[in-house]
Specification:
There is one protein chain. The chain has about 160 residues and is mainly alpha-helical. The chain has one domain: Up-down Bundle (Four Helix Bundle (Hemerythrin (Met), subunit A)). It contains five helices and two strands. Strand 1 and strand 2 form a beta hairpin. Helix 2 packs antiparallel against helix 4. The radius of gyration is 16 Å and the shape is globular.
Length: about 160
């Protein structure tokens, strides 16, 4: 599998995992901390996409979304990442993207490093949501990558 196809597949997984977490929250397992983390995941995913596209930041890093807003943003952001990844060439992955962080510091990272960061950052915080849910005696979403593949959610 070529690297570009790998990233497309990973963003398909990411969107699926976000939907699974939101479905678990929708099914009566919502907590304030879980919503806060989910809002951060979604806002960060959009922020990094905006950086790659050289667009201004449109959401705060830690937004205060309710469940419905999270669901709406998840659908939109997942679609935007699919569109972006489908528009890339293999050569684009090694291209440097310059951006400013939230402190105004200027950095440059390759597109593939930014994409890797987005995927890992989101998985990290989904793990935190699962941990918080377990602490509250709730059952978190089952978002393991291999589960998604075995169940045919990802080809």
């Amino acid at each position: 599998m070529e690297l570009l196809e790998y990233f497309r597949r990973q963003f398909t997984y990411d969107a699926w995992a976000n939907r699974e977490v939101l479905a678990a929250l929708r099914n009566g397992r919502e907590t304030a901390r879980s919503l806060q983390l989910m809002g951060h995941i979604l806002s960060s995913e959009l922020l990094w996409l905006e950086r790659l596209k050289q667009l201004p930041q449109s959401l705060p890093v830690w937004p205060e979304f309710n469940l419905e807003q999270c669901e709406e943003h998840a659908e939109q952001i997942g679609g935007k990442w699919r569109e972006y990844a489908n528009g890339l060439s293999a050569e684009d992955l090694s291209r440097d993207a310059s951006y400013k962080n939230t402190k105004g510091e200027v950095f440059a990272s390759t597109v593939q490093d930014v994409m890797t960061h987005v995927l890992m950052h989101s998985a990290y915080h989904r793990g935190q949501i699962a941990s918080h849910m377990r602490e509250d005696g709730k059952v978190p979403a089952y978002t393991d990558f291999i589960h998604a593949v075995r169940q045919g959610f990802i080809e």
